[in-house]
User: Which sequence fits this backbone?
């Protein structure tokens, strides 16, 4: 049995989604018009329809995200949107709110959002039992944990492989809601994790001041793709519905190359969509937005994952300054151009940056020399030449087609068979003229029938009969080529594989018996769902609470003590401190608690 692998890219808009598909994405995910976990990245129904039409030409899929928790008033409107998405041909629905499972849903495949905190075999077995077709795994899981989930379930597994990391378990972060009234579970997170904090010990003494203590590096699992496949993951997701088209093009193309390389070496695997993309640039994830990269916990707790000194993009590491002049500097090797943006850390570990005014004879003249010294590492966070390439059309995607051209006494027949076995045929009555030059006549047929232009097709084989055909005008040949490819496109759209899976409620027991605010119960139907599955909702969603003091506003696998070499479980802990540790910003104080047995940290709002 051949296993299909899916490269899944973000679509902050229909145009970005189309670009991702053109760069090789097997699927894209886009926000529904309302109720998406990225509220500012919702798309209109007409744009989603346009994206679906383009995707389905390549047998690529479009998943719609309607993954916030909902109020009672929003439930009916949500169902209307879901029905419309199903009518458009969306290939899956990403949801968080279990209240939706109490409705009469259309037979659209259901995908459990990572906001549902999908991190244990028990939780995932439950989601499979109640009707989900796919689960988006928690980012924090290791290969060992993913393999354990695979052994205990048959549901499709999707995991993030690239992009920004939430420091908290997704769906379990309440800091933005608690302090600003902007809920991440409602799609409007203010990202307080990207702010700077001061860390104090139990005596109130400062350990670190004004550092980005909750801001993580970005995820990059390119080298772990074969290991993830071995655990049973089949969908590889790039984060970034707030990212621009250049970012999505570049990262999608990079992961397409990695997955294709694996498929080429393993005949038991294939890509899940059709067509082959041709690039006119060399993809490099280091050349677009990144805060430095981490593999997070995929191999266990083996690296420092925070970016303490900045929450901004570092970009591509270039090297160290080798020489300084009055108004210029040198580095060993580079391809810098006028207008490039560079950054570096000052002696106080603060990020500073400048623009390149000009490059002459190996000398780089910046718009400011402030802080530059010999030996300072430099990063390029704005590559003008690379960005210009990505802003343009950067390659296309073509479906392989074999054509068969037959010329009879009174008609011509042209058939086209694509790589998926779809066949279209056009017959035209025509009286070909005897060729004055048979070689030129045949050459004209070859030229016109294989000139597919800006279509989605590339002709990989053309059979012409008889060997010496009569002469046909270019306009006639172009016309039948155009007609047969248009017909083939219509046939492909109709034949595009689509799952229709009716949802039938059941009473499978929920793995927990009593639920507090972490279950995110925000409406009566969600409460009804859990009660039907044998759980008691002791506390509604935090978004309903008037006082959040004393609540755990973050649950994280990231640990500040580990980051700062203060972990009591590790021999290399450099020093111990009096607890409790606290984080402070300009307005709030948070107490930190640690569960060393499960390697978790809790951030608790004190005031």
Assistant:
């Amino acid at each position: 049995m051949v296993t299909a692998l899916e490269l899944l890219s973000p679509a902050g808009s229909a145009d970005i989604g189309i670009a991702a598909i053109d760069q090789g994405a097997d699927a894209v995910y886009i926000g529904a018009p309302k109720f998406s976990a990225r509220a500012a990245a919702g798309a209109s129904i007409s744009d989603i329809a346009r994206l679906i039409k383009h995707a389905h030409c390549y047998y690529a899929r479009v998943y719609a995200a309607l993954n916030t928790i909902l109020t009672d008033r929003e439930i009916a409107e949500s169902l209307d949107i879901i029905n419309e998405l199903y009518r458009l041909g969306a290939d899956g629905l990403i949801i968080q709110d279990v209240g939706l499972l109490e409705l009469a849903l259309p037979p659209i495949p259901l995908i459990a959002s990572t906001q549902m905190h999908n991190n244990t075999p028990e939780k995932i077995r439950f989601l499979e039992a109640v009707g989900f077709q796919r689960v988006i795994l928690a980012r924090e899981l290791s290969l060992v944990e993913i393999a354990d989930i695979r052994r205990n379930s048959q549901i499709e597994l999707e995991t993030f492989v690239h992009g920004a990391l939430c420091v908290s378990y997704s769906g379990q972060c309440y800091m933005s809601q608690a302090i600003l009234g902007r809920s991440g579970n409602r799609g409007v997170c203010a990202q307080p994790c990207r702010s700077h904090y001061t860390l104090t010990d139990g005596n109130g003494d400062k350990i670190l001041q004004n550092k980005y203590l909750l801001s993580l590096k970005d995820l990059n699992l390119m080298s772990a793709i074969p290991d993830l496949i071995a655990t049973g993951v089949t969908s590889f997701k790039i984060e970034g519905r707030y990212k621009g088209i250049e970012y999505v093009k570049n990262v999608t193309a990079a992961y397409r190359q990695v997955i294709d390389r694996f498929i080429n070496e393993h005949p038991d695997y294939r890509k899940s969509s059709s067509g082959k993309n041709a690039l006119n640039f060399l993809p490099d994830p280091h050349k677009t937005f990144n805060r430095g990269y981490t593999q997070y916990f995929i191999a266990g707790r083996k690296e420092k994952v925070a970016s303490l000194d900045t929450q901004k993009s570092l970009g591509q590491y270039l090297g160290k300054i080798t020489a300084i002049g009055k108004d210029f500097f040198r580095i060993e090797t580079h391809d810098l151009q006028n207008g490039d943006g560079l950054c570096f850390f000052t002696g106080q570990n603060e990020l500073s940056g400048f623009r390149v005014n000009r490059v002459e004879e190996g000398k780089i003249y910046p718009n400011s020399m402030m802080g530059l010294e010999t030996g300072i590492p430099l990063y390029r966070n704005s590559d003008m030449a690379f960005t210009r390439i990505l802003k343009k059309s950067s390659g296309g995607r073509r479906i392989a087609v074999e054509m068969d051209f037959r010329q009879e006494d009174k008609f011509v027949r042209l058939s086209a068979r694509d790589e998926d076995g779809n066949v279209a045929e056009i017959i035209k009555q025509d009286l070909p003229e005897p060729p004055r030059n048979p070689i030129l006549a045949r050459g004209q047929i070859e030229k016109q029938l294989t000139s597919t232009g800006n279509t989605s097709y590339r002709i990989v084989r053309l059979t012409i009969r008889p060997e010496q055909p009569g002469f046909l005008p270019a306009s006639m040949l172009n016309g039948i080529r155009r007609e047969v490819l248009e017909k083939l496109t219509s046939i492909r759209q109709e034949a595009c594989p689509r799952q229709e899976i009716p949802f039938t409620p059941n009473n499978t027991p929920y793995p927990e018996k009593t639920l507090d605010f972490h279950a995110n119960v925000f409406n009566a139907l969600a409460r009804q769902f859990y009660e039907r599955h044998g759980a008691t909702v002791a506390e509604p969603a935090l978004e309903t609470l008037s006082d959040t003091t004393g609540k755990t506003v973050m649950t994280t696998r990231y640990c500040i003590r580990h980051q700062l070499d203060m972990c009591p479980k590790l021999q290399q802990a450099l020093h111990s401190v009096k607890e409790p540790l606290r984080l402070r910003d300009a307005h709030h104080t948070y107490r930190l608690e640690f569960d060393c047995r499960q390697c978790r940290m809790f951030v608790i709002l004190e005031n």
